[in-house]
Specification:
Elements (H helix, E strand, L loop, with lengths): L3 H30 L2 E4 L5 E5 L5 E6 L3 H4 L2 H27 L8 H5 L16
Antiparallel strand pairs: 1-2, 2-3
Keywords: Coiled coil, DNA-binding
InterPro entries: YbaB-like_sf, YbaB/EbfC
GO molecular function, one term: DNA binding
């Protein structure tokens, strides 16, 4: 038969698991709500991205068509998407780091990260 001390230890462990589960739920909710907005230096282009870097909004100042060529405009849009994506990746890292401190965040969320970073390397299971 389990002693009173063992029951207290079990209750403490259950409370810790419940607390960690709640913290993970809160982190997941915050991750779903993450977004970042980047604005070009000239204020002509504003881009907002979501937690996975998906573009949620692109706002263009009406004067942009008079001030920028099509290639300058597309370049500015791509640049702001990059800025916003790096910002939201940093916020994601901050949220996740307390839960998985040994995760190689720079490898997963770094600037040079591409889809292939998530694929298995040859010779690995």
């Amino acid at each position: 038969m389990a002693s009173n001390e063992q029951w207290k230890l079990l209750e403490q462990l259950v409370q810790e698991v419940n607390q960690q589960t709640e913290q993970l739920k809160q982190m997941q909710e915050r991750m779903r709500e993450l977004s970042a907005t980047a604005v070009s230096r000239d204020g002509m282009v504003t881009v907002t991205v979501g937690p996975r870097g998906e573009v949620r909004a692109i706002e263009l100042d009406p004067r942009v068509y008079r001030k920028l060529s099509p290639s300058e405009l597309s370049g500015s849009i791509v640049e702001q998407i990059g800025h916003a994506t790096r910002q939201v990746s940093g916020e994601m890292k901050e949220l996740m780091e307390p839960f998985v401190p040994d995760l190689p965040f720079d490898d997963l969320f770094g600037e040079e990260t591409g889809f292939e970073s998530f694929l298995p390397r040859p010779g690995t299971p």
